[in-house]
Amino acid sequence: MSTTYELYEFRKLIKELKNKRGRGTELISLYIPPGRNVYDVIKYLRNEYDQASNIKDKLTRKNVQSAIESIIQRLKLYKKIPENGLVIFCGAIPRGKDRGTEKLEIYVIEPPEPVRSFTYLCSHEFHLEPLEEMAKEKKAYGLIVMDRGGAVLAILRGANYRIVDEVTSDIPPKHSAGGQSQRRFERIREERVHDFFKRVGMRANQAFLPLGDDLEGIIIGGPGDAREKFEEGNFLDYRLQKKIIANLPLSYTEEQGVRELIMKAEDVLSESALYKEKRAVDEIFTLIAKGSNRVVYGLREVEEALLAGAVEKLLLLEDLQVKRVTIRCTQCKYEESKFVRPEKGLKLESWECPRCGSTTAEVEEQDIIEYFGELGKQTGAEVIIISANTEWGNQLKAIGGIAAVLRYELHGY
Ligand SMILES: [Zn+2]
Q1: Domain segments of the chain: what residues?
Q2: pTM summary value
Q3: Tens of pLDDT along 30-53?
Q4: 327 CA distance to ligand 1 middle (Å)
Q5: What dotted CATH number matches 5-135?
Q6: What pLDDT, on the 0 to 100 scale, is given for residue 413?
Q7: How far, in Å, is the centroid of ligand 1 from the Cα of 324?
Q8: CATH tag, 276-406
Q9: Is the Cβ–Cβ distance between 205 and 240 less than 8 Å?
Q10: Ligand 1: centre distance to CA 287 (Å)
Q11: Which of 94, 214, 287, 333 could form an S-S bond across to 292 if both were Cys, CB 3.0 to 4.6 Å?
Q12: How many A from CA of 328 to the centre of ligand 1?
């Protein structure tokens, strides 16, 4: 998965579930692997239902049993457990301070990756770790930035890199005393270089091998020729050695070198989520610079283009601080929608229905990314969520955090 709208939604749901707490030990998490027999799972739950009759606290007992009952009812709708298994969360979530304000909530999720093992847990919170694992950016790149002075190892995942190790060297600088002592000095120096390369190789193996199949490739870079000698000498484990996809000259070492390497490796990283985002934002600004009519930005403009079915590619900033609010007249059902920035809030006191004059209305709030994401999905647009706190995220933020490339030129703006 890259930063698609589906992944965004999945992560958002996990975040919401994470904030839910039960009053007692009464929230149920159920992970069912693919291939399980639905009837066996129901039988298991019936047994748990009976066990729950031993719970001393009357309300907890009632809440646990009705949660199990709800899960069984849902499971009965399935003839077969779906391809990746099924994850169900169910429990009484408090609405107010007092005991008894709980309402039963149930979430049935078909996960994006297979559930590995059957888990049934009853706790004061939902058990989310296996889902969180699935929501992680999987593709990783191992980065090695080095010269004879030292090496830095980093892992690049999605739009973020992390320094994982640093290897120092004790190679003396070259000098030119000449004669016998110079030859001896050269030999010692060669040994130390070899020793340093060996250590870099070992530490890289430790850092990158555990990534297993998630590791897409190894990228090496640095000033001077150490980076080339290191690759030629096969100091990496053969599994990593064959994953080297680039070896690039750099001006910098250390963390600055890591950043330089990421920018320079654009071609080989072009399939990664990072560059998908960067390229998409670049395209928007190129079109704007050309004065093209195939680009729009801003909430209203993009909404209009989406409703016209004209959007080919939709870019949304991950932390867009806007809500879509729908006001519905309780008398005549007239409704209107607004985009509201939370810091400004919505002034409802002065609202008056333009159709019937009533001043009572109900208000519905919607997550902005959900609103635009769904519109995009329905009209066949490619939806790209742009990471905040990146260089391109900030560029997009500067034009309102939302932009679109159109299938054709739109007129009349
Ligand atoms: Zn009205």
Answers
A1: 5-135, 140-270, 276-406
A2: 0.64
A3: 999 999 999 999 999 999 999 999
A4: 10
A5: 3.30.960.10
A6: 46
A7: 20
A8: 3.30.1330.30
A9: yes
A10: 43
A11: 287
A12: 8
